[in-house]
Amino acid sequence: MPAVKPFDLSVYVITDNRLSGGRSAGEVVTEAIAGGATCIQLRDKELFTREYFYLAEQIRELTLEKGVTFIINDHVDVAIAVKADGVHLGEDDLPAVAARRIMPPHMILGVTARNLQQALQFQEVGASYLGVGAVFPTATKDNTGQPIGLEGLAEICCEVKIPVVGIGGINASKAGSVILAGARGVAVVSAVVSVPDIAGATREVAGAVKEAHRQRRS
Amino acid sequence: MPAVKPFDLSVYVITDNRLSGGRSAGEVVTEAIAGGATCIQLRDKELFTREYFYLAEQIRELTLEKGVTFIINDHVDVAIAVKADGVHLGEDDLPAVAARRIMPPHMILGVTARNLQQALQFQEVGASYLGVGAVFPTATKDNTGQPIGLEGLAEICCEVKIPVVGIGGINASKAGSVILAGARGVAVVSAVVSVPDIAGATREVAGAVKEAHRQRRS
Asked: What was the pLDDT predicted at A96?
């Protein structure tokens, strides 16, 4: 297994240019970090590689300044080029096994898993963490299929050794239950990036996550 | 300067899924190689990375079998993952300087140059060859601007040390003039991949290129 740097997935904010009401990714990320995001994933399926690269360079600077983990969606080449902390791969992206082969061993590899079988498979090929879901129903991504629920999430968290981030339909009121089901963190998109007060919404999620981790330890 | 493997750019065929009349990239490439293509560039701006990766694996096998140089358009990560011979970057792709930094030094880096200034700049940052054009008017790509003509091409071929491939509106009847202007090879898209007999059309281009190289040597 590759030795990646320590990373904090507890409040994992994913940007989405289509949901941010015209605000730039830089603005969204700055606000999310101010609200307590511990990890930022830059997602944009519409930009050309060149534009995405320049945006990624900018977010790399912002996150480095604040000591926040920075994950690139899909583009492994861009992740390596801008020295992101890691890359996250969904089912339309480079296969995890191919990505792990070409990535520096210290780089974080996150993979989306929809069920236990996938989770075990991606752990086997060198994933550093798993994004597991959709936990709850969500309108953010198409074709995510039937939500796996807190039970499905808990089963996967039990069976794998690498950290799990719950994703899909998570907001401040549901974040605690995701952590109590065994997830290390919660990934949020629309609950945070589509509202007027991004920092405030992130702060609420971060508070719920912190409280649930405290309960889990006690 | 990186030491790349020897490569033959003389008959450089670029696939285009929108121009191939429903024929698969595998079919197009097989025919083009049968007609004498010495280099294949796989271009598809519409596929998700995952699908592009599987297609690239397939074309890598085909080209390896026939000893033909294989170049990936845009996706540096896929190029590395499938062990392509190289990558070609246009103006919407990863900047050449960033790509060179993350590519294995033996891998070919091709870059599109529209004028002498760009040509010298890309040579400086480690391009292995340049795709220069559009030489003639073309409908294949949008926004290529005013064609540079054979004079513009000849000027660049004179001034740079790395091989140049002419691109843009080239067919069998124009291929010879591109070589005589100083280009090492000709890149063809629609003249070859959009016609019923891909092998035949490639053969005509290859014949014209060979004859012009013979004239240049004598």
From this structure: 98
